[in-house]
Amino acid sequence: MLKVIWMSDPHFSYEGDILGHDPRVRLESALDHINGNHSDASFCVISGDMVNQGTRENYEAISKLLEKLDVPLLPMVGNHDDRKLFRKNLSLPDTCMKEFIQFSVSTPSGFIVCLDTLKVGSDAGELCQERLDWLRNVLENNADKPVYIFMHHPPMAVGLPMQDADGLADGDVFLDLVSKYDCVKYLFIGHVHRPISGTIRGVPFSTMRSILYQAPAPRPEWNWDTFKPSEEAPNIGVITISDLDVNLQYEQFCRFEEGTYPK
Predict the structure, then answer these.
(1) Residue 263 has what pLDDT?
(2) CA dist 114 to 135, 187, 225, Å?
(3) pTM for the full model?
(4) Rounded CA gap, 51 and 48, in Å?
(5) Alpha-carbon Rg for the chain in angstroms
(6) pLDDT of residue 55
(7) DSSP notation for 55-117
(8) Phi and psi, residue 36, nearest 5°
(9) pLDDT at 241 over 90
(10) CA 50 from centroid of its chain's CA atoms
């Protein structure tokens, strides 16, 4: 059995708060929870937006804090990240692409693929031809193994009107590719700060809450002018994979009030 801890969207900052939430308190609480309850995990994936702003200070600070984690880390980029500073401050597998933060990890239970969907200068994402060709090659070479894909941007609309506008550009191209390969068993997606599950082109997917702040549900209606985080506690994901069976537990690691400021 493979056990993976999944965190997403820490939006870390070395000082101050993000929308009334303290990213240092929240991340440290998550790490303490993982170390105390899930040190038997094979690794921890953080599916993008490691920092809220791509500065040297933020990457140096999050790198230092993540040294507390007792399990190996697989960090990923999101739309708030900077590839150069990311690579300088965070360790990556030897399989990582040279130009992109995109890599794979082989395990006895299957192949883990972590994609780079960053589109520089945009909140939306993209997979250029070079990244798609890399993915196609991985799927061709591992067609006899189960493949589990982690990515930051959703390649389809997930029913969140404000976030759906900033998903993966040309997501149909990605979906056309992965749906051709029976080896692709699951998509794990960040970015939206809400838990959603379903299937797309027959492939199961789940999204993840942020470990910092949560986006509200689509009803009552809201827009970016009226946006404020919902008062929901953060989660990590605990993924177990055994004989192609995938179980994802959304696990609360602290109270909502921990690391929030009264308004």
Answers:
(1) 59
(2) 10, 10, 33
(3) 0.97
(4) 8
(5) 17
(6) 98
(7) -HHHHHHHHHHHTT-SS-EEE---TT--HHHHHHHS---TT--SSSS-EEEEETTEEEEE---
(8) -80, -20
(9) yes
(10) 9
